[in-house]
Specification:
By secondary structure, the chain is an alpha+beta fold. The chain has helices at residues 10-23, 49-53, 55-66, 75-83, 97-110, 142-155, 188-207, 283-303, 305-321, 346-358, 391-398, 425-429, and strands spanning 27-34, 40-46, 89-91, 159-166, 173-175, 179-182, 213-215, 220-221, 235-242, 250-252, 279-281, 329-332, 364-366, 370-372, 375-377, 382-385, 434-436, 444-445. A hairpin with a 5-residue loop joins strand 1 and strand 2 (40-46). Helix 7 crosses helix 8.
Amino acid sequence: MGADRKLADWTEITGYLAELANGSERVRIDTLGRTTLGRPFVVLTISDSPNLASLERIRETQLQLADPRRIRDPEHLEELNEILANTVVLLIPSLNPDGVDKVVAWYRSSLGTEWEGASPPFLYHHYIGHDNNRDWYAFTQLETQLTVDQVHNAWHPQIVHDIHQQGRYGSRFFVPPWIDPIEPNVDPMLVASGNALGSEIAWSLLREGKKGIVLNATYDAWTPARAYQHYHAGVRILTETASAKLATPVEVDPDELEVGRGFDPRERSWNFPVPWEGGSWHLADIVDYMEAGAFALLRHAARNREAWLRNFVGIGERAVAGWPSWPAAWIVPPAVGDGANGPWPAIGVARLIRVLRMGDVEVGRALEPFDAAGRRFPAGSYIVEMRQPYAAFAQTLLEVQRYPDRRAYEGGPLLKPYDVTAHTLPLLFGVEAVPVEEPLEVERGGPRGAGLSRAAL
């Protein structure tokens, strides 16, 4: 792994992972479904063999912790710590297996030519290409749906490690803390715990002698489009390792290094303590940095598991209690006509409710007309109570975003956002969502809403 000019396709990758699972009591492989182009979409579960033998019991306990209303007594948390002797790792080897094979085939066909290592001149998938980096609030792609339904919502992990690659002319490795702005519905303890974990990862890599490690630069935490877990009581740790030309080594001259958002790769600073001087950069270097970052995260998680579990439960408890900045509930009126004969087209309402329910938000439906927010709502209106574990996800998708007016200095030029500045789904889908400040007293269908079928609109 990491050999120059060698890339593994998806059959080879999954074959290798199957060999690991067949040869070890500490690894299990499961196929969650099929990708857009029919390839197996797999997840690895890695832990001690006693943990794998009682995996369903561990998952059930984790689901209880995910909703503090199901925790009966304080001893429950200690019981979970005894079950989780170390950690359970759910490893999805790629969120885009189809793209893996397309890139590998392209790279192999270009070896020895003048375009060796160039970006493929085609889309990964028909129509949309494939942007799994920003599909975590719309769930448009099968691969996102499989991950959310069968990993995130099935397990509710405390830590999600998103392993990426970035351009070759900046840092060698990025890890949070994120730069501002941080979206206001992200729990403050997620911000603090992410800062601590990211800083420890950076410290660990620096202790190993690795150069070019930057934190608190380039990437913000503004949108759920990139960070599903930030609204589901878990921290998202993004790591970005500098790229080569796919598997072809590159030579980076120090003068080619480019100033990034929040740091200069040619100068030492508090968030970039040991610059990389340039030189050769190989696929093996990428693998080395990625592996070092992953194991630094896992060591921290294993040694601080009780703190992470208490943090996780506390975030859920604050959500169930309700934040002062949140309304008591949101109301989404039912569809009226087909869009031509009424203001709220059925497809827009259906898509909005689908997203909320897929995001594990509890959505009920009024069984009778009712009055709220100074108006009359019909039977069939959708109701999202905001005293629930994943109310933050509902709030950030339903409210109108106000991206901060950030400037280089007072009266100076605007600081350019990283990318996404708004994600208000009612505006996107052309429907209405009404905040209600007082608790609602209206009979509604669905056991806390979550039990309703996502298709039952």
